[in-house]
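User: I'm preparing a small set of examples for a lab meeting where we compare how different chains pack in three dimensions. I only have the primary sequence for this one, and I'd like the structure in token form so I can line it up with the others. Please keep the answer compact; I'll paste it straight into my notes.
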Amino acid sequence: MLTESGVCVTCYHVANVPESQTLIAMTGDGRVVAVKEVLAANPNTDVAILRLDGAGFTPLPLDTEAPVGTSVRVLSHPDDHFFTLSEGIVSRYVSVPMEKQGEVTMMAITADFGAGASGAPVFNERGGVVGMVNNTQSLYYDPKRSKDLQMVFKHCLPSQYVLQLIK
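Assistant: Understood. Below is the structure token output for the 167-residue chain.
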């Protein structure tokens, strides 16, 4: 949530669902509200800024400082497991090829999240949002057979991409 008046941010791939007639959001206090409009979107960085129906929302501060080793927490809804909190650290920054969009610098974290968590905030210890959940990439011992999962890389979009779209 960026403003009290309902301006919020999520991943573009979350909001870009042409076959869906409605788009809703769930606030930190459990309110489910309709998305009124898309204010700005950048498919290249996978960021969308939306306006929700209603007012009186609690905005979260954006923070761009999250060097490798920074403690982070994720509050997400993976696969309808609402308000799941996990913690970890920023493990690296890496250039990741995005589907049809070129490369984007991602913040890899060790805090857990899964399918359905895209757009969730990544908090630093001061409560600032340093990124938002984007995707996972699995590493297998035998990638041809998707056998023997060894590691899951958890990629997040740094808050800088949100600030770029706001400007």
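A couple of notes for your slides: The two ends are 17 Å apart (CA to CA). The beta strands are 7-11, 24-26, 32-42, 47-52, 71-76, 84-98, 102-109, 121-123, 129-142, 147-158.

User: Perfect, thanks.
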